[in-house]
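User: Second chain of the day. Same drill as before.
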Amino acid sequence: MIRGIHHTAISTGNLERALAFYRDLLGFEVATEFNWPVGTDVADRITALKDSSARAAMLKAGNTMIELFQYQSPLPQRGDPDRPVNEHGITHICLDVTDVDAEYKRLQAAGVKFHCPPQEFAGVAKVTYARDPDGNVIELQEILQPSSPIALDLE
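Assistant: Same format as last time:
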């Protein structure tokens, strides 16, 4: 039985920079940090990589966890930081917020790149897309109607 999504994992070229964004700027807490050296067979089997090594951190906010990986080997190719959201793959991570306008202003003042100011969708939600330091899209969403089928009970 599937109970839900436990975490989303993101590969980054700079773990410290990603932690500064997700931990320091967005407020996620570090649940644990770990690494594995080259020659860790179980990691190679799980990732389907040869001679892999990485540093990682698992972050938590409410009922959401994000796992950040910085691979030292094999050396990854840098992704397109402006990859359009219509290309196949994960398009964004959505964070539920209580005041999207305030978060937009706070994060924009900190230098976070946004696609646009918060936009209202049919009176149900107000949303905007931002980019993390690696170009991954982070949606900020404020539910305007708590009785909406898309509302979560995060209390």
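The chain has a mean pLDDT of 90.

User: Great, on to the next one.
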